[in-house]
Amino acid sequence: MRTFRQKIFIGYGASLVLMVLILAWAMFMMLRLGRASESILRENYRSIQAVENMIDAIERQDSAVLLYLLGYREQGLKEFRENEPAFLQWLGRARDNITIPGEKEIIDSIEKSYIQYLKEVANLHLKGASTQPGAVSLYHESILPLFRSTRDTCVKLREINHETMYAASNRASRLSLQAVLSMAMIGSLSVIIGVIFSLFLSRLISRPVTELKKAALQIAEGNYEVQVPVSGSAELALLAEQFNQMAEKLRKYHEMNIGKIIAEKLKSEAIIQNVDDGIIVVDDSLVINSINPKAALIFGVHKDSLIGKHFFEAVRDERLFHLLKQSVESGEAPHLKEGEDIFTITSEAGSQHYQFSIIPMRSSSHAIQGVVLHLRDITRLRELDRLKSEFVLTASHELRTPLTSVSMAVDLLRESAAAKLSDKERELLAACHEDVQRLRALVNDLLDLSRIEAGKLELAMERVNTAFLFDQALAVVKPQAEAKNQELRLEAPPDLPDVKVDPNKIVWVIVNLLANAVRHTPEGGHIRVKGERVGGQVHISVADDGEGVPYDIQSRIFDKFVQVKRDAAAGGSGLGLAICKEMVRAHWGTIWLESVPGQGSDFRFTIPVAD
Asked: Whole-structure pTM over 0.70, yes or no?
């Protein structure tokens, strides 16, 4: 039994053979037409050309004889002799191209009469030298009849060649007509065979494929009982059999998993519907597929009225819409800075604050199917943070006055009564002085942080040379580094651009980072300050080879009251890095940490270029 592939090969092979036969027949007929044309040129055209030139030459010779008789003897003789070789030359070519029966006899007759013509012209020259009347009589009686006889014979030769050319042309026309008809017949036959084969092949293929298509549609609609008849060639029968096996396995899998899938779906929907945070699920066209009651409550609508609507139509917030669209197009969650992931709704009852996150949904083939918008109510946290900031600000103000009084009293005792005190009392007084200074620094830091968070930080922005900032900061920290025998190195190109900052605030940030590096770097360590331009910003880095920051603290290192504990007392208030962060943000910059525990830390921040 022939396979499906063999049937296709045989059918297309027959078409290919027909095409080869048509091509061979066309080439054969073209060769015949070419030979016929060549025959016309070789057998007739050259002879006609020779005859025409012979007629022209002998007519010129006759004109030369007439010139001679009119008294122009030298000119006539000269012209007669010049045309004689031409006639003989073309006569020889005509003899070389004899291809028609009877053509040889005509050429012999031309040659014979022309030789006689030459003899009579020679006699004319002899008689013409003695008597003019005798020469004229000789011309009319002998030369002129020979001239006419030769020319007429040449015309006869031309006519038989013309007739032969016409006959050859008729043969070529008949041959071309035969070629066209034969090629048309063979071409039509091949077209008919090709159409018949195509119909047969299309029927052979389309019928089982159509059955497979109908079966696949039924499976897509959930009918797993469908079966495809197993018939036809070996390949199609095997395909139908494998399709039936697939349908059977799908039926078993569907029966086995449908209950589990439904249970999982109900469980997921129950979780989404009862979670305390707002959740909105949109597809890749930003049409809402699912929304839980909390999200509907946030936007003040009924959740069923939003299903199937476009996100921007349901939630008229342009920023959220663009972030969702960006996530669908890129397939990644949008990168937002701290504070940019807050969504606020203002109403008569007050403002509600929600922290949102956008999570893309991918299929098993990593195609984007949609995104999930998660809304977390942080109104209470924002309120607590506000109350905490107000409390810290109030407490700091209340503590500042008594601390100033205590500090002045301790300083006065140290200056006036130190000589009257015992050594133990002087130690206690020094410790009291140190604790008061630490409390004053803590209160000042709290006041600074409170002002920054309240938006009351005043910046005196000006154009400053970056090298000036480095010099000011290094001059402050250099004595502390030298006391611990630490190398303090500056790496900055001389062509660093000017920056637009509040120089006092940025110098304070660099000094704070350097002081932390000196504090957490052992004696003999290395501290590096580096500056470089990146786009429209200058990146400033303070790196050390000290103890580094543990991984569990790195994400909170810029929060308030977070410190890296050492074996000894940590020192400081734990507010320095928090203040650095707020000051850098006030300059439209970003601060971050890169650290490996045990290998050192690298604090980096950015400030804008002046231009």
From this structure: no
